[in-house]
Amino acid sequence: MPTIHFVLKDGNTRSVDAPIGQSVMEAAILNNVRGIDAECGGCASCATCHVYVDPAYFERLPEPDDMERELLEGVAAERRPTSRLSCQIALVAELDGLVIHVPATQA
Amino acid sequence: MISAEQNDFITRVGPGTPAGALLRRYWQPIALVEELEEKRPVRAVRLMGQDFVLFRDEKGELGLLDRDCPHRGADLAFGRLEDGGLRCPFHGWLFDVKGTCLETPAEPAGSKLCTRIKQSAYPVVEKSGIIFAYIGEGEPPAFPAFDCFVAPDTHVFAFKGLFECNWLQALEVGIDPAHASYLHRFFQDESTEASYGKQFRGASNDSDMPITKVLREFDRPDIAVESADYGLRLTSLRKLSEESTHVRVTNVVFPQAFVIPMSSEMTISQWHVPVDDTHCYWYAIFTSFTGPVNKQQMRDQRLELYELPDYTSRKNKRNNYGYNIDEQLNETYTGMGNDINVHDQWAIESQGPIQDRTREHLGTTDKGIIAYRRLLVSAIEATQAGQPAPMLINADQAAAFSGPPSIDGVSPSDRTATYCKDADRKRREQSSWAAARLTD
């Protein structure tokens, strides 16, 4: 199972093993990683699972679709070039070791 | 969608839990005054997983004690009401409303045992037909001067009913303005003349349109959520035409109540009170801004559904809530009868004893629920850190509260922003008791 390292707001890191096919958001919620709210539960209608993907992994991800791009316009924390919605990142073997930074706020 | 841990964090309220610690900082409804009007005014009551006995002594004083006798744990709810207190039938130990042990009659003459025994007792007060209890530590907060607490006794009516599920999902139905267009849809409107005491059956204020018609035909409300000093205010707009817009303003009063319009003359102030983690009572105060409430009629209407002594619903999961296929095809959205309390009861009980929120998907109309959960989580965390929480108010602060305005009416489309304030003002000016509180 790929491992995801979540860098939390307080600077601590939570490492979570998650099955291939699960989204980064689901891995965060199921493991009680704080700071990823995911109100809509992954149907891409809110923007409260916003994360910053570590640059080393960012290029490995497929491009965001139009719906995600639109929602990224409205994220509560600072929008950065590495901003993504974690519900739209599906885990694949190549993402093992993925580093995800949790933003300051989702609201 | 939240994690299982976070779901436990906000739903479980037994002794020692984080959310339980928060809710214990507030007055909680524990019984209706009418429950102590029987021949023997003693009731066993359960609140947030703790068992108590509530009674009125021979002088009329209310007492709330732990239910287990401090001698050997027998049930004081079967006690004898005599000699200035409640007497345990096991060995005759007698306790007054403050929990003071007055007698231990089997002990040898001259025994001082009594002086070293104290049963835990909790403050209780009567407000508008409900007995409120404070089972937390230290001093309770003051009661805000909301309409339901300041209206004269003639203008308020209280009732309650049991839901077989967690308190939070019950509260979350009440603060969801979108569901009424579906769950409470009636395919035909009744005459609004016969609407007394029934929610949604009257005409919307400033119009002759039955609320049922507004809800049915305009089913995509535009919802706005604002913070208020008491919690949250939700405004739902349904545009009826270029000229007119339906405005419905409802309120969340932190931590567990909402105040909503019932009809143009009455509001409902409703608490969702945990009995334990998988049962809760709704307690409602109906407040009339016009004439006195017809309490007998209101009570009789509700006793058609609710069975005494525990205010349990005759329609429940064991009889499929009275579900009828033909009715669902032709009359109501649910097929579960005309009483909207049954619709709500089905919706929330069907979510499970404690809704598994790791499986939910919230939409745009759930913004009130999202805002409320944020308030709740931050207040629980503040309580854990020994910090203040909303609505822990003193007497001076309490006096400054009013309303909160709860309106269902039809506004000119260009004046929706001020409609609630104007309609609320008009209703108060025409109300014998509310006019007296207007300051300008």
Automatic annotation (TrEMBL), chain A:
Q: Name one GO cellular component term.
A: cytosol
What the entry lists under PROSITE patterns is as follows: 2FE2S_FER_2
Picking any one GO biological process from the record gives: P450-containing electron transport chain
PANTHER family from the UniProt entry: FERREDOXIN-2, MITOCHONDRIAL, FERREDOXIN/ADRENODOXIN
State what protein this is by name. Ferredoxin
Organism of origin is Parazoarcus communis SWub3 = DSM 12120
The GO terms this record gives for MF are: 2 iron, 2 sulfur cluster binding; electron transfer activity; metal ion binding
**Highest taxon in the source lineage:** Bacteria
Cofactor dependence? [2Fe-2S] cluster
Q: Which InterPro entries match?
A: 2Fe-2S_ferredoxin-like_sf (IPR036010), 2Fe-2S_ferredoxin-type (IPR001041), Adrenodoxin-like (IPR001055), Beta-grasp_dom_sf (IPR012675)
UniProtKB/TrEMBL annotation, chain B:
Keywords recorded for this protein, A-Z: 2Fe-2S, Dioxygenase, Iron, Iron-sulfur, Metal-binding, Oxidoreductase
Recorded superkingdom: Bacteria
Q: Where is this region: Disordered?
A: 403-440
Basic and acidic residues composition-biased segments: 421-430
What GO terms are given for molecular function? 2 iron, 2 sulfur cluster binding; dioxygenase activity; metal ion binding
**Pfam families noted in UniProt:** LigXa_C, Rieske
Domain Rieske per the UniProt entry, residue ranges: 27-133
Q: Which InterPro entries match?
A: Cholesterol_7-desaturase, LigXa_C, Rieske_2Fe-2S, Rieske_2Fe-2S_sf
**PANTHER family, alphabetized:** BLR4922 PROTEIN, IRON-SULFUR DOMAIN CONTAINING PROTEIN
Q: What is this protein called?
A: Aromatic ring-hydroxylating dioxygenase subunit alpha
| Biological source species | Parazoarcus communis SWub3 = DSM 12120
